[in-house]
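Blinded run. Sample ID left blank on purpose so nobody reads anything into the name before looking at the predicted structure. Input follows.
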Amino acid sequence: MNKKITLSLALLSFTFSVNAQTGADIDTAIKYGRYDVAKKDLYKLIKTQPNQGRNFYRLGTIHLNENNQDSASYYFKLGLRAVKEPGINNIGIGKISLLNGKDKEAKSKFNAGTNNLPLNDYETFLVVADAYTKAPKPDFDAALEYVNFALLVDLKVAEPHIARGDIYFAEKRFVDARRVYYETSKMFPESLLPKMRLADVFRAGNEFGEAIKVYDSIVAKDPNYIDVYKQLGLTYADYARFEDDKSLLQKGVENYFKYHGLIGESLDADNEIANYFIKNKAYDALGDLVRTKWYTRGDNFYMYRYRAIADFQNGKFLDAKESINKYFDVQDKKEQILPIDYLYKGLAELETSRNEDGTFNEAVYKKSIDEMSKAVKENPQLGTALHQLGVDLFKDEHFEQAYFVFDLASKDEKSPYYVYDMYYKGNALYMASDKPMFQDQLHKAKSDLDNSLKKTPTFEAYLISARVNRNLNTATSLAQMEKDYEGFISLLTEKGRANDAAFKEALVEAYTMIGNYNQSINKEKATNSFRKVLQLDSSNEYARKQVQSTN
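Blinded prediction complete.
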């Protein structure tokens, strides 16, 4: 980052901190998830201005956004005792009622909260409409009713019109939503908000190129429009996943970094962008964030956690171990340590406990896996995260680390991913067998693949099992190799995928190996297998020679 940009961000941060005592700046901090900054100021304000009900409402809203209903309810109820604007807190209590399925109670509170509003206050009606739209059981009719109230208050602003489109959007009536946003954009050509919503519809329909064009037009019109950079960051991330093109993610990272810089300093904002990078597997960017923030936000001990994740994913295992251990040391609220944190701790320790020849000490390995298994048992949902993490590591050819993850995931035989966890576990051992982690690595791979096939046969497991048995190269294993290749061919045919171009090479391999195995024991079967090869690949000279030798 050049000095000019750094200075501008520093000034922006200073501006936020100086003015944060005003309600508008607190609302801005809440809007952009800078909850730690907003809460710090609000805790002061409710002491110095205990009669101002809206500050209690703001504080309760933050706690509600953080999924802490008890604290939110506490502050909303305190706000009802205030002298100025106590009624707004009924809106907060109504939201909690709605979240808990108490619809009649919610309606009563919303009615109380919208009585006696200032004549120009349409925003409160829109807040209620949004609550109904995003409720666990959305009530779109009620939402539209409150949007209509907002329209009665002020037809000459864009927001109530946009809110109609938001309801359609939530109902997945994308054509109707697009129509409303387009009409609103025509009505209010200077407003960027309907254009933002229009782009959101494109993004929801996987029309990422169209969405980006609209977002870029907003940037061209107003480069200081903060919200657009977050949406660009999210859209490019979705686009990268949709196209399986990591190069697209870089633009997402750049835009999210820009958004993060513009909203001002905040521990919560740091955590948000870190989680964006983790979700999108942008581990280089996560490492850059940690290095950048370490000097300005050293009091955010979550940075130890993020540095551990970045270092582990980037292959710096000793650094990862140091960082995750520090995180465990400084985190005084042990209940906030997540099962995934125990996973990274265990994986980092494993990576640093190899023997001199590169293999693992079996006793150390077993102890580490047992420790991490506790985390999995505490949170069964971690099994899904483990499976995805393992697949990502495998795809990136980090086969050893992938094995650790699948070994841990496969401890839960009830997991819906168990069959594939066992398959990947065996496959990872096979792929890493050139530099074995264990003395009997191929036998371990065979055992894992056998377990996968016993549970539910898959053509992937048959193929890798055949290769493992081929490499074991014993009379018994070669006989099993033939059965595995035949199982691969049979299941692929049964699934109707034998003609897929993606499997041509594997089928040529299977028929060739079956042919080679049978050359001395079943000449006819060998010849038929080589003929199958020629059907798949007429230019295969090896198969042609084998067929010709029998004529």
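Unblinding after everyone has recorded impressions. The longest helix spans residues 475-494.
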